[in-house]
Amino acid sequence: QVTLQESGPGLVKPSQTLSLTCTVSGDSITTTYDYWTWIRQPPGKGLEWMGAIAWSGKTYYSRSLKSRTSISRDTSKNQFTLQLTSVTPEETAVYYCARDRGLAGDTWPPPWYGMDYWGQGTQVTVSS
Predict the structure, then answer these.
(1) CA 108 to CA 106: how far, in whole Å?
(2) Of 31, 45, 68, 122, which has the fewest Cβ atoms less than 10 A away?
């Protein structure tokens, strides 16, 4: 069984950096063809793919967020992280990490069907 767990501050001030960590158990984040992914869901809205880091360490980002987003990893801890800079209250959301099996190849954003394991999500509120 693969499990993912998000962690990080639940409250971030506007203009500051949102930082989250996803801890993975049951699979290595270096497993070939796995993409380790961040998704968010604002209140009352749909899921938004933010970006991913591949097994190789290569990163991929949503076009709308690319300039403010950084995904990295610590393979010794089997963790990957999200940093989103210059946040606004519109970025209040539940943030999820997920495993994507890369079934669609070079399709960005990827389809949801490739994401077989998700974390439970963590609420992040952007407010002063």
Answers:
(1) 6
(2) 45
Q: How far apart (Å, rounded) are the C-alpha atoms in residues 80 and 100?
A: 13
Of the chain, the percentage scoring pLDDT greater than 90 comes to: 95
Pairing of strands 11-12, 122-126: parallel
Q: How far apart are CA 102 and CA 4, in angstroms?
A: 17
Contact between 9 and 125 (Cβ < 8 Å): no
Tell me the Ramachandran region of residue 77: left when phi exceeds 0, alpha when psi lies from -120 to 50, beta otherwise. alpha
Strand partners, 5: 23
Cβ 100 vs Cβ 117: under 8 Å:
no
Give whole-number Cα distances, 62 to 2, 4, 32, 35, in Å.
Answer: 25, 21, 22, 14
Report how far residue 124's alpha carbon sits from residue 69's, in angstroms, rounded to the nearest whole number.
16
Share of the chain above pLDDT 70, in %: 100
CA max distance for the chain:
42
Q: Chain centroid to CA 83: how far? A: 9
How many whole angstroms separate alpha carbon 123 and alpha carbon 113?
24
